[in-house]
Amino acid sequence: MTPGGVARAPGFNRVRAFTAALGLCSALPASAADASEEEELPPVSVGADTLYFRPREGWDYLYGSVRAEAGVLHLEVRYNYEDLHTGSAFVGWNLGVGERLRLELTPMLGGVLGATQGVAPGLELALSYGKLALWSESEYVLARSDADFFYTWTELSLWPVEWARAGVNLQWTRSTGARPVAERGFHLGLAYRNVSVAAYVFEPGGDDASTIFLFGLEL
What interhelical angle do 30-39 and 8-26 show, nearest 10? Predict the structure, then answer.
């Protein structure tokens, strides 16, 4: 889970630049294209997120993820995401279409090991228009224990200025019990250069209220 989604769009901008570079190389003479191929490699970006979960009841815990983008290739590893004491690794493919109204999709397939074990197909989606940004991440875990489950995190943000955002969020999760539940809330976030922070509140004022703090870094 990468709830902030603040630093996702730049990766897809690099995808567009790399696609344009491929088109240019195909129009060059063979010798020039070979030289260009040796000099130009798809740009690589690395990002990391750390989240601190603080439920009203139960144990606090940390979640961490590291991802790498190289052209259209997406790689990601996570810990404490599908379950506590559980790690996962994903391979995905970055797709994007549109300019002012921009849609970005990353279908993924991953393996899960630890307290929960299995295979997890997933999808990351980003839709942006002006100062509005929708971000969603979903996965379905096919567990070896036959306890399959679906999880999704979705947030809609308004960026009134370049460095601050606010919005609403929704997650479908089983973290509060054995039966999956839908949790709603709001968030506030700040971003400066390659650093982002955010706070999420789910079910404010309710018995199942929880708070999540995010710190993100893009290299």
Answer: 160
Label residue 139 by pLDDT band (50, 70, 90): very high
Q: Hey, what are 91's tokens? A: 């391979």
Domains of the chain: 8-218 (2.40.160.40)
3-state SS assignment for residue 28: coil
Give yes or no for a contact between 6 and 162, defined as CB atoms under 8 angstroms apart: no
Residue 2: name the closest of 47, 34, 32, 38 by CA: 47
pTM summary value: 0.78
- Distance between CA atoms of residues 18 and 12, nearest Å: 10
pLDDT at 37: 52
CB pairs under 8 A, 24+ apart, for 29-34? none
Q: Phi and psi of 20, rounded to 5°?
A: -65, -40
Q: Render the burial of 172-186: b for 16+ CB within 10 Å, e for the rest.
A: ebebbeeeeeebebe
Q: Do 211 and 200 touch, CB atoms closer than 8 A?
A: yes
Question: Residue 191 in contact with residue 163, Cβ under 8 Å?
Answer: yes
